[in-house]
Amino acid sequence: MSVNASRKKTTTATIRAMKGREKIVSLTAYDFVTAKLVDEAGVHLILVGDSLGMVVLGYDSTLPVTMADMLHHTAAVARSKPKALLITDMPFMSYQRGVDHAVKNAGRFVQEAGAEGVKLEGGSPRMAEKITAIVEAGIPVLGHIGLTPQSVLELGGYKIQGKTEETAKRLLDEAKRVENAGAFAIVLECVPAELAKTISEALRIPTIGIGAGPHCDGQIQVINDMLGLATWPTFKHVKRFASVGDAMRTAVAAYHDEVQSGKFPTAEQSF
Ligand code: KIV
Q1: Residue 41: its pLDDT value, please?
Q2: Whole-number Cα distances in Å, 42 to 39, 82, 209
Q3: pTM recorded for the entire structure
Q4: Does ligand 1 have an atom closer than 6 angstroms to the CB of 40?
Q5: Which of 81, 25, 94, 15 lies closest to 53, judged by CA?
Q6: Among 121, 17, 23, 109, which residue's Cα sits nearest to residue 71?
C-alpha cells in the first residue's frame, strides 16, 4: 500500500531526529521505476549506491564505477521526485585525491543530478577533512565505515571488520571522527553486532547498518539482494523478502513458449 500521499519530504533533519525514536529504513535504487516503488513503500532514505557497478553494470567490484555512471543513475532516481531523502555514492577516486576535488565532485551530484547529499567511505583524519569541506559547501554527507568496498584491494577481500579489540577501537574512533566532521548519519557495514551497538550508543548521529546487527538506528540493504534479483551468491546479512528473479525467469519462459506455440498474441492483443 502506498503511504506516500500524506508523507512529508524526508530531510537530513528528519533522519537525525529519528535516532532513538523510530528505525530508519534505507534501500538502494538505481533507476526511475524502482525508486518510485521503493518511495511509495515508505522508505526514508534512498541510496544510489555504487553497488550498481556489481548489481546493474556487471563489474566484479565497485572500483570501475565512474562519475558519469553515478551522475546518470542518480539523475534517473531524482526524476522520481522521492519523498525519501536521496543520497548518492561518490565513486572510487572521485574524492580520494584531495579536498577541492572532493568538494567539486560532490557539488556535481547536487547541481547536475539532483542528489540531496553524498556518501563517502572511510573515517581517517584525511577523510574527515573532506567531509567537513563538503558539509561546509552546504552538501550533507552520509559517512560509511567498517567494510568499505572501495578499499577491497587494501582490505584483502570482503571481510567482517572490527573483530579484534584493536580494530574495534579504531572503528569507534573513526565513527566519532566522521560525526565530528559533520556527517548527518553513518553507515556501518559488516561489523560485529556488539561493536555496532557500542558505536550507536556512543554517537549522537544515527547509525545505519548493513551486516551490523539489530542495534543500529536503521538498516540499509542492496535492493537486488533483498528482492531475490541476484544471480550471484549473497552475503549472510541478506534476507530475501521476495523471489523476483524466479518470477522473471518463469514469466520469460512462459512468453517464450507462447510465442513459439502461437498462443501469444491472440485477437485480444491485436488491432
Ligand atoms: O553501494 C552501496 O549500495 C552501499 C550500501 C551497501 C551501503 O554502499
Answers
A1: 97
A2: 5, 10, 18
A3: 0.97
A4: no
A5: 94
A6: 109
Domain with CATH 3.20.20.60 in the chain: 12-240
* Residue 121 CA, ligand 1 centroid: distance in Å: 10
* Residue 46, strand partner residues: 27, 86
Is the pLDDT confidence value at 188 over 90?
yes
Residues labelled catalytic? 189
Q: How confident is the model at residue 3 (pLDDT cuts 50, 70, 90)?
A: low
Q: What is the DSSP letter of 268?
A: G
The fold of the 12-240 domain, in CATH, is TIM Barrel (3.20.20)
Please tell me if the CB atom of residue 210 comes closer than 6 angstroms to any atom of ligand 1. yes
Can you give the pLDDT at residue 128? 98
Among 122, 166, 168, 116, smallest CA distance to 144 is for: 122
156: left (phi over 0), alpha (psi -120 to 50) or beta: left
Pairwise CA distance, residues 19 & 24, whole Å: 8
Residue 79: is it exposed, middle or buried by C-beta count within 10 angstroms (0-12/13-18/19+)? middle
- Residue 1: pLDDT over 60: no
Which of 44-58, 163-177, 231-245 shows the lowest mean pLDDT across its residues? Answer: 231-245
Residue whose CA is at the smallest distance from ligand 1 atom 8: 49
